[in-house]
Write a structure and sequence with these properties.
about 20% strand, alpha/beta, Protein-Tyrosine Phosphatase, Chain A, 6 strands
């Protein structure tokens, strides 16, 4: 619609969409290792963003979550987590609220204190055909300067598996 209002030709719009590479740290595919897909959604710093990230997943998910909680109501994620998440890897200094919220919904929840540890743990928990999703639902400031640094460390740790 916007293209029509601005009188942009359809072939120009089509060409632009075909070439669009996505935005860094927003549902960004990193690589596939031994059949396990790694997705960087470090920008997912709230429950709503994480809900949409989980909704997009077409496979079972090992979810990397955590950081500084912003007063999150994790109950908004209960249904989607029950449907899609096989394990949660908590990343942060204080993960108690995540652990308490999901302990009855997800069979495996582990706590980690570095991105390398979180990525390695996720890799060992996931199986071929599944996805490891970093979508923290929290701010990054407990272990990282910002969500970009968190996302870059995730990508580096994944590439070093």
């Amino acid at each position: 619609i916007a293209g029509k209002v601005l009188t942009i030709r359809k072939d120009i719009i089509r060409e632009s969409l075909v070439d669009f590479q996505g935005v860094e740290h927003r549902l960004e595919p990193v690589i596939t290792v031994c059949g396990i897909n790694f997705i960087n959604d470090s920008k997912g710093t709230n429950v709503n963003s994480t809900w949409y990230a989980l909704e997009c997943m077409e496979t079972d998910v090992v979810w990397i979550a955590g950081g500084i909680d912003k007063g999150n109501d994790y109950s908004e994620l209960f249904q989607i987590v029950k449907q899609k998440v096989i394990a949660i890897v908590c990343l942060g200094k204080d993960n108690r609220k995540i652990v308490d919220s999901f302990r009855d919904l997800v069979p495996t929840i582990i706590e980690t204190s570095s991105m390398i540890e979180a990525v390695r743990s996720s890799y060992y928990l996931a199986k071929k055909g599944q996805t490891v999703l970093l979508s923290p639902a929290c701010a990054s400031f407990d272990l990282f300067n910002n969500y970009e640094e968190r996302g870059r460390q995730f990508k580096e740790a994944v590439r070093n598996l």
